[in-house]
Amino acid sequence: MEVLERVREIPEGFVRTYGDVSPGAPRFAGTVLFHADDPDLPWWRVVRADGSLAKGDRQRALLRAEGVPFRGRRVDISRARIAEDGGDALKSCFSFRRWKAADGGKSNR
Asked: What pTM was estimated for this model as a whole?
C-alpha cells in the first residue's frame, strides 16, 4: 500500500504530515495507520500539518528519542519535515544538523 510505503521511507529524526503520506486525503492516512498491524512501522513519524501530535506523549517520547526538534509541544515542522519528494529538504536538514553539531548546539537558530 502506498501510504505505508511512504511512512516506511521517513528516516529517523524526521517527520512527514498526514497530507504528505496521503496527498489530498490526510484522514485516509490516519485510518490506514490506525488499522496497520506492523510493529516495525514508524507511525510516530507522521504528524499533523501544524506539528501537533495525534498520539500525544507516547508519540512525543519516540520523536524526541530520535532527535526531532520541537517548538513547545509541537514538532518544528520547518526543521523536521521532509517534503513529498524528500530530496533537497533531506539534504538541507542533514546540513543543518551537521552545522548544529559543529556549533555545539549553542546557536538558537
From this structure: 0.77
